[in-house]
């Protein structure tokens, strides 16, 4: 059933406008806000990830891993919209990379910052991968 992979990718894309993180010092962060800072940020590459942890600067490897997770989430949605199981599967792996990188920086307090957009995207990718069907893309 390729329709479920398609629908799960649409739900994941719609979650971009919802808050993904709730930070005590700066309010809510949406996925679109993260992308906007990456693509049009005036503070450079490190300035795009200011919200990860304002007290420390992560290594370049953490920034690269985080950016790879974001890229995999976007590719997962694109492939999921084309139908099949691979798109949500890539999205799940991207969410895992995204989560592990942010969890490394925040530690145990990371789960307290998660908001509904993050949870909806993760669950929709998991449902699309498990029940999506399809052989290609």
From TrEMBL:
KW Transmembrane (keyword) present: yes
Highest rank taxon of the organism: Archaea
Keywords, in A-Z order: Membrane, Transmembrane, Transmembrane helix
Statement: the UniProt record of this protein carries the keyword Membrane: yes
Transmembrane segment boundaries: 60-82, 89-106, 118-134
Protein name, entry field: Amino acid permease 21
Organism: Thermococcus onnurineus (strain NA1)
